[in-house]
# Entry
Amino acid sequence: MKLYTRCSKCREEINFSAWVSDRFALAKKLNEKIELRCTNCNTSNKYHVNDIRAEKNKIVALVASLILLAGTAGMVMLVWDYIFRIADVYATSAFVGVIGIPMAVYQAIVSGQERKVWLFNSYKY
Ligand SMILES: [Zn+2]
# Structure
């Protein structure tokens, strides 16, 4: 999860990250007013936690996609030899189940992050 606010001087986005789940935890960890420096105009200013917003981390989404792609490919390779040898209904459902694992991991990561972003932005300090 990425945290950001807008610079009070040049309106450029100031990004930072903190391992917190909501604004209360952020205020507890860093203070109610957080000092942030803008990388664009180099102005340092204090921002209230309510002015901080959360956004989905693109790297997390990318990693989740890679797990989905590599995981699915890996699972297909793993079960490919067996699927034709024991071609019955149980093998097919097991095949579908195994293929579904990377998809489940992907969905867990993506929806987990969406939930975190939603939670952070929902509650004001
Ligand atoms: Zn600025």
Remarks:
- The chain has a mean pLDDT of 91.
- The CA atoms of residues 4 and 15 lie 4 Å apart.
- The beta strands are 2-6, 13-16, 33-37, 44-48, 53-55.
- The pocket of zinc ion is lined by residues 7, 9-10, 12, 38, 40-41, 43 (CB under 6 Å).
